[in-house]
Amino acid sequence: DSGGGPELTKEGGPRENSAGDAPLVVVEHINKYFGDLHVLKDISLTVNRGEVVVIIGPSGGGKSTLCRSINRLEPIDNGVIKVDGAELPKEGRELARLRADVGMVFQSFNLFAHKTILENVTLGPIKVRKVAKPEAEKHAMELLDRVGIASQAQKYPAQLSGGQQQRAAIARSLAMKPKVMLFDEPTSALDPEMVNEVLDVMTGLAREGMTMIVVTHEMGFARRAAQKVVFMADGQIVEENTPDEFFTNARTDRAKDFLSKIL
Ligand code: ADP
Ligand code: MG
Description:
By secondary structure, the protein is an alpha/beta fold. It has 9 helices and 10 strands.
C-alpha cells in the first residue's frame, strides 16, 4: 500500500470516501499581505468533492496567491484553510504529507531537468509517500499512458514539447494521489496548438470526478468542465456563478468589463 493518499479507482479518479459530502476544500475569511499590499481580502471559498471550480480574473488579482496559499506555498496572515477537514500545519513533516494531498500544476512545467520523465513522476511517491520503486514505476507508467506520453518515459524534459511536458507535470502530480488538483494557468505558456492536448487531459480528469481548482481564461474548458466560475479582482471574489450564467450574464460591471476584453 502506498499509504496516506486516498484510494484511486482504476481510472485514477478519487473513490467515494467516508467523509461523505462534507466540502473537500474550505477557505474561510483569509487575508494575505505582501508588505503593505493587501493581496487576498477576506476570501472565502468552498469546493465540494468532485467539483471543478474555475478562477478567472485580471492579472494581479490574487489568483496565484490564493492557489499557493491553499497549498501552503504562501503563508496567510489570518483565516482558515482546510483540506478534507484538516487544517494544513505551517511546517514540519506533517506539512509535506498533507501538501501532497493538494496537487499543483503551474504555468511553467517545473520538471526536474536532469531527471527522466519517469523519474520525475516517481520521485514524490518514493520520497514522500514511501512507495517501493517497482510499484511507483508501474503506477507512473499507467499515469503517463493516461496522459498520452508513455513512450516518452525515458526522455528528459528538454526533449519533450511544451504540451508533453505539461502532461508529464500533471502525471507527476497525480502520482501523489492528491485529493484535489490546483492548476494555475496551465496552458498560458504553451504554443496554441498544444493547448488542447493539455485541456483534454484536464477535462478527462474532471469527468472522472477529480476535485479541481483551475485558474484559466479558457472559456471552452470552463463551460465543458466547471460547475462554478469564481471571478477574482483586486484580491476579492467579485462574483461566483455557473459558467453559463457567468459568461452570458455577468452581474457586475467589473466582470463584464473583463469579459469584454478577453472574449
Ligand atoms: P494573479 O495570479 O491574479 O495575476 P498574483 O496572486 O500573482 O495575481 O498577484 C497578486 C498581487 O500580489 C500582485 O499585485 C502581485 O504583484 C503581488 N505579489 C505576488 N507575489 C508577490 C510576492 N512574492 N511579493 C510581493 N508581491 C507579490
Ligand atoms: Mg497568476
